[in-house]
Amino acid sequence: MELTQNSQLPEASDIELNITRFEFTKENPFHASKIFLDAIDPIFISDLEDRVIDLNRAAEQVYGWTRSELIGGSMKILVVPDLDTKAEKLYDRCKRGERLEILEAIHITKSGDTFPVLLSFSLIMNERGEPTSIVTIVKGLSDLKRIHETLRAQIAALERSNKDLEQFAYVAAHDLREPLIGIAAYIKILERHMKHELDEKAHKLIARTIAVITRMDRLIQGLLWQSGLASETKHFEITDCNVVLEEALTSLKSIIEDNEALVKNELLPTVMANPALLIQLFQNLISNAIKFASDDPLVIRIGAQYGEHEWKFFVKDNGIGIEPPYFDRIFRIFKRIDSGADRPGTGIGLANCKKIVEYHEGRIWVESRPGNGSTFFFTIPHEIASEP
Ligand code: ADP
């Protein structure tokens, strides 16, 4: 079907009155124009300078612009600003005669909503075989839009239920602590009252009970901290990671000395971050490196590498290492590997590290070989980070 452009285009003000400006065939212009106007898919016709010549009703409905608003303007208005150079390239390819079908793009409506589309472009020639205009058909939009909307609704529902769960965890943990503290207090009072009637075995049992309660309280506090952080409003500031590390090392000074650990650190960058949380992150990773040391003299290396999108920090030790099946598991709350009684813990440390890194929109992972030490990596994206 040949499409020819009328030599005389009406002014935008004529458009509402004179809607059939395109003749798809010379024989039956009305019929073809009707197909164009009534098509379910949005269709745009543009000139070789990418100016809109015409659009159909579906295009008006989907994009929210009226014909008079778009005609004469640039086709770029339909494309998300960051992606307009990509769109320009597509039009150039089409003008060179390349057939372009089913190309993915992100379009934007008058009200600023963005949505994925599939496009096909065709170059229209006049009788002399000269290119005159380009027809852009927006395909598969209804399906894509539906999927997009379903996904959006599902994400919103997930976010809501996540928030509810965090709130629930916070309240449950908060309320659980109270009776627990009460039990510990009553057991201590009981022990004091019956000091002379209890034998050594009973005192030992009471001490063990208190130890179990203390451990449970620590677990609950971890849960409280995790769910509290999730609902907190984010706070970032320019953060010198060398200062952050210094503070973490100062607070771990005595265990570093007791374990004769050697900490070697490179110059770290300055990033946009929450310094209090970063201190905690380094503290957790360094204290784990000490806790899970091997018999070799412990060396901990700390540094950061600049990447295209983010800073990649690392905390590397020469400790006992971790078996690959546990690489993901250890970041889950209360999950730990049984490494013997001399390495007690709650399984909260790395879950907290993950929460802190995710708070900064980064990622955390471990690389390790059993017996050959572990390296924990975490990233801080450049969008909230600056160079050292
Ligand atoms: P916890 O230290 O209380 O056990 P974490 O969440 O900090 O809890 O760590 C989870 C598990 O990951 C630990 O039980 C340990 O098995 C493993 N792990 C963490 N850090 C290291 C490390 N540097 N070297 C070897 N194993 C580690």
Task: Set out the fold topology.
Layout: E1 4-5, E2 22-23, H1 29-38, E3 43-47, E4 52-55, H2 57-63, H3 67-70, H4 84-95, E5 100-108, E6 114-125, E7 131-139, H5 141-193, H6 200-231, E8 237-240, H7 241-251, H8 253-258, E9 262-265, E10 270-273, H9 275-291, E11 299-306, E12 310-316, H10 349-359, E13 364-368, E14 374-381
Parallel strand pairs: 9-11
Antiparallel strand pairs: 1-2, 3-4, 3-7, 5-6, 6-7, 8-10, 11-12, 12-14, 13-14
Helix pairs in contact: 5-6, 6-10, 7-9, 9-10
This protein binds adenosine-5'-diphosphate.
The site of adenosine-5'-diphosphate has 20 residues, from helix 9 and helix 10.
Care to describe what's here?
- It is a single chain.
- The chain has 388 residues and is of the alpha+beta class.
- It is 42% helix and 21% strand.
- The chain is built from 10 helices and 14 strands.
- It has helices at 29-38, 57-63, 67-70, 84-95, 141-193, 200-231, 241-251, 253-258, 275-291, 349-359; strands spanning 4-5, 22-23, 43-47, 52-55, 100-108, 114-125, 131-139, 237-240, 262-265, 270-273, 299-306, 310-316, 364-368, 374-381.
- The strands form 4 sheets. It has a 5-stranded antiparallel β-sheet with strand order 4-3-7-6-5, with helices on both faces. A 5-stranded mixed β-sheet has the order 9-11-12-14-13.
- Helix 5 packs antiparallel against helix 6 (200-231) and helix 9 (275-291) runs antiparallel to helix 10 (349-359).
- The longest helix is centred in the middle third of the chain and has 53 residues, at 141-193.
- The structure holds adenosine-5'-diphosphate.
- Adenosine-5'-diphosphate is lined by residues 288-289, 291-292, 317, 319-320, 322, 330, 336-337, 339, 345-351, 374.
